[in-house]
Specification:
This protein is an alpha/beta fold. The protein has helices spanning 3-15, 24-29, 31-39, 44-64, 89-100, 120-138, 167-176, 193-201, and strands spanning 71-76, 79-86, 107-110, 113-114, 148-153, 156-163, 183-190. 49% of the residues lie in helices and 21% in strands. Helix 1 packs across helix 4.
Length: 202
């Protein structure tokens, strides 16, 4: 498999948990990738770079920064969210410096906490919350689940995406009503209604 196809396949997997099952054949032909890309508000270039940021940073982080084994990296439009646990403040700062040094990264949101690694039950609960938030967004006709990324850490839901001022509170409101959510943090990039119309019409 050549590099462009590897990147495209990884992008399809990362884009939405809805596509995790039953799409192997489609992904292989590029159909699923094209469909997901069309519904994503980022450019194809940004989508590809976000995937590379996540794969490259996650792959080498433990070697680059001691104690960073429980760090999760999420990138949207070249802005990176760091979640998870680290042993001390020095490690927290070192992780941010390492990720920020990668040229495609435009901004880093450091939401790492100092303390022991999250338990299996906490991680399972977070995974369920993320799935439920995505499902609730999917049920809202006025919102697009592919316009945002949802990350949950210890009950806190982080929302990243390209949204309008009208949409932002709506996404946050949906997430806040999901059982188990203790707080919602919005890390949106805001676009105008005209920009949204232009993106959707492309």
């Amino acid at each position: 498999m050549q590099r462009p196809l590897k990147i495209a396949t990884a992008l399809a997997v990362l884009a939405s948990t809805v596509w995790l099952t039953g799409c192997v054949g489609l992904a292989a032909t590029g159909v699923a990738v094209g469909a997901m890309s069309a519904m994503d508000r980022r450019t194809i270039g940004a989508q590809t770079e976000d995937t590379e940021i996540e794969l490259r940073m996650a792959g080498g982080l433990s070697d680059a920064v001691k104690g960073a084994g429980n760090v999760s990296i999420t990138s949207f439009n070249r802005r990176v969210l760091l979640t998870g646990q680290v042993p001390d403040e020095a490690t927290k700062a070192a992780v941010q410096r390492h990720v920020a040094s990668y040229p495609p990264v435009r901004q880093v949101y450091n939401e790492l906490t100092v303390g022991p690694a999250a338990s299996f039950s906490t991680k399972s609960s977070d995974s369920l919350i993320t799935t439920r938030v995505k499902s609730e967004i999917l049920n809202q006709k006025a919102l697009s689940v592919n316009a945002v990324k949802v990350v949950t850490e210890s009950g806190v839901v982080f929302l990243m995406g390209l949204v309008t001022e009208r949409e932002g509170p709506a996404y946050a409101g949906v997430a806040s009503r999901v059982p188990g959510v203790t707080r919602v943090v919005t890390l949106f990039e805001y676009i105008t209604e005209d920009e949204l119309k232009r993106i959707v019409s492309q």
